[in-house]
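# step 3/5: fold
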Amino acid sequence: MPYSFHSHSGQFCKHGYGLLEDVVKEAIRKGFYAYGLSEHMPRYAESELYPEELEANCTPETLETTYADFQIEAKRVQQKYKNQIHILIGAEIEFINKDYAQHVSNLRNVYKADYVVGSLHHVNSVPIDFSPELYAEALGQVNSLKDLYTQYFDEQYTMLRSVQPEVVGHFDLIRIFADQRVADETLLQPEVWERVVRNIDLVVAYGGLFEINSRSWKKGLLDAYPQRDIIKAILKKNGKFTLSDDCHGPNDVGLFYERLPAYLKENQIDTLYYLAYDEDGRITVEKHEHILDDVFWDKIQHW
């Protein structure tokens, strides 16, 4: 019974590929029970556009139009395939500055989003996951990797407190372009680790789900997001995990899910959670126990 709540397509994301409907069709082909459509929310200033968007002559206004178009198409495919898969419609949010708390609130109100994926892609307003060069630029604004980590988790805390996302996206994305050994050592430094635990406590308190995001393996990282020390801390606090492939096109559906059984077993995770509609059409959190016994993992080999 696989599921994912973090996805993109080239139809509505400049660094994705393929059509949204083809993403859904691939999820059906691969036997997904539920799939969340979560294209990026708009950004609201010219300075916040990515290089690829500037090259395509995007503006904050066109990004808003693109997201509105996504909502229309997502609802169409949701209805078209409702007897084959449970489709949820949300957004992956931004939190470049504190103004985004209101932007996210407006998005929820206007589009009645089923959920949001709470991600942090910027530190000091500099994108950290777009390229090694921009990561280096963000690092150059502080004194050390430790300082970059502490600022990331402080900005994440502000986002979590303001938005309370149903799904926390790639909790430790800040690891993406750092040397893995140094990254893990930095994470465990007291000033950083106390912020990690603080953020975990907040998510557990309001009932959010931590995604185990398999896309990190595409980036060559040893662990999924989050890495194993963070997973242990989440488990100790009785936090809840879900799954996300962070798909960016049809061929990414279920990306590296074949690695998940070993990763879950190594980290002693036997229960996951997923989002679903209740009888009144409201979003609820459902428990998926004994996941390693699920026959789904055997089916992955035939994808």
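# step 4/5: annotate
The first strand starts at residue 3 and ends at 4.
# step 5/5: archive (pending)
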